[in-house]
Amino acid sequence: MNRFTLRLRSLVRDETGDVPGWVLITLMTAGLVLIIWGLAGPALSGVFQQAMDRVSSF
Predict the structure, then answer these.
(1) pTM higher than 0.85, yes or no?
(2) DSSP states of 1-58 as a string?
(3) Cα–Cα separations (whole angstroms), residue 14 to 17, 29, 43, 54
């Protein structure tokens, strides 16, 4: 029983993490942001320009 608790404590203290997994998640998130920004950027720019034109016409 003592060996089991020592092993369990060492596993709980292990903070190495899953570095390749986090790198993959970060790269995929950055890729999705770039794709969405590329597709929605011109539309958002048009909406912003319309809003600025309406505000400046007052």
Answers:
(1) no
(2) -HHHHHHHHHHHH-----HHHHHHHHHHHHHHHHHHHHHHHHHHHHHHHHHHHHHHT-
(3) 8, 27, 47, 58
Q: Output the CA–CA distances (angstroms, integers) from residue 43 to 22, 47, 55, 56, in the order listed.
A: 32, 6, 19, 20
| Assigned token pair, 14 | 């292990």
State pLDDT tens for residues 7-58: 777 766 656 667 788 899 999 999 999 999 999 999 999 999 999 999 998 7
